[in-house]
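Task: fold both queries, return tokens.
Query 1:
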Amino acid sequence: MPQTPLTVAQLSEAELLARIFPRLELSALHSAAVVLGPGDDAAIVAVPDGRTVISIDTQVQDQDFRLEWNNGYRTTGYDVGWKAAAQNLSDINAMGASATSMVVSLTMPPDTPVGWVEDLADGLTAAISKLGAGACSVAGGDLGRGRELSVTVAVLGTLDGGQPVLRSGAREGDTLGIAGRAGWAAAGLALLESPHHVASLTPEQLSLLELQCRPEPPLEAGPLARVSGATAMMDISDGLVRDATRLAAASHVVLDLEPGQLAVLAEPLRTAASLLGADPRAWVLGGGEDHGLLATFPAGMQVPPGFTGIGSVQACGADKAPGVTIAGRSADSVGWDHFAD
């Protein structure tokens, strides 16, 4: 007979931490920024630049993820740990900074399997190492009891003496570029919500599903854009048009997207779109959670490696408010809203 999984209610906090701490060690020693890691009342981190870039985000069961999806896919602790790390690392990346340390708070019901929690710790450290945030370590965190799973991650980062890239610096004539994917995570979410069982999906379709559960932000692109002279930048978490609208408003400009480049971004999504009877362009324009970067670069400058030009920055006028257009016509995709959707 299969054994009943050990749950967190069957362990003391010290016993559970003893299982988690070894999984949070990325190497024999923590990164140089972590002076004192897990095990004390608080962590101690170094701030050699004199400034700290910080971001925090939360994933809540049945709001940001489901333990079991409509198509039969079961979300693992590894998935949640990876995504919790990735979405916060992406926000640091969007400032042109590099992550240095991370703290994690986990709230969970008492019947949560211990193996799920161990997998979450593995997902956190795997995302840090595999996404290229090698200078970052998990410095500490908190465990608590609650009615649902909830994971909050805060990440600290450094600009290494440089200036942050804000949303407000785009100028008329700049080139608009994108790094990373657009619409892949939205296609993956549509597959998770569909009646097409996960076992029936093709490898290409499975890759979309996996990128919804374990996004891959281009962490090398943010600091590179900063040193290359990017004038404005932000993480694409809520959809290309919605986030571009935010950048346009902050910079008081119009961002005009090129239809041909949007078609190129949509092409890898056509197989999944055909299966679901969907429009891949809608995923590109409105889908979130890919955690790519949207950035503007000075006129005449070639966008740095990893970025693709997808449009231009235009001035606002008496009859043109800040916003997003496609070949001069108003974009109609609204993207994701945490409170409206």
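Query 1 returned. Query 2:
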Amino acid sequence: MTNSPVKHPGAAPAASAARIAMIAGRALAIATLGQTTHAAMLPSAASTVDASLWGMLSLTLLVGLVLLGALFGFTVHAHRAGAMRIARELDREGKDARLPAIAVTGPMAIAQLARSINAVRRRQAEREAEHLDVQAAYAHDLRTPLTRMGLRCEMLEDPAAREAMARDLAEMRELVEASVASAWMQRSVAEPQQRVDADGLIGNLVRDYRDAGRAIALDGHIGRPVAACPLALRRVLANLIDNALRYGTDVRISARVDTRSLVLAVIDSGPGICPAQMEAVLSPWVRARQGQEHKPGSGLGLAIARRLARSMQGELLLQNRRGGGLEARLTLPLAMA
């Protein structure tokens, strides 16, 4: 997901006030020092002043030095605070090896640093997008020779060799499809969030499955927009539905709204997942082992769904149902009114 640099509403007035205060302080300090130096350089005949005048000049010099020290300290504090802010933003949002957008605020040097980081971030995103496009294109082009090999496999006379070759080709197709899905998943992560009509999106998805002859039930109604990425949300739900259809029956989507979030659950009546593997199956290339080894799949569907859910500030959890089957629960934030 691509975040735009955030400029806080009160940052500009505060920075302007700080600059004005610094300029005024510097002018006062310089004037004080100039006045003191001028008095000190007066001829001896004109500088026969009493002790009280010299005390006043010394006090003026001291005040000027204090002002200069205060201005220096304020500048150092502003730069340190700006550097710490950038470090916190990088630590908080940059955990997936992708630089976050940095707010361009603070002193001139800190603002320039933020602009440079944002420029590097844009170039990184562009290079990553180009790499993913090439990866998806290569994986997509592998489908054609695999199809030809499948046709030639049917001409083998030895049934055992033909069956073994068919299994190998099926595994290769799964890897190719997984590579394409992984590349497009990475592209979907960079999709900007927006207000999404979740009812319309889910309704269209369910109709697509029904048109393909797959019975998908839908319970519940949302009735308000959701903060999400349309393509990513559709991919998450499709992966969860495909997983439910692969391992179970009576697939159903349940939708409900909490105080601040939307909860979508894809429920099936399959064998579920062993509790010890519940977290592992959300990692790439991991499949549950409960007598389902013969089922097709690469072990990427749930991992992709979880990654996309987190890119939308949501979460994906798996839970076995008491009556049998699995519930994959997706939680997303509601859009602000």
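Both queries returned. Flag for query 2: The chain has eight helices and seven strands.
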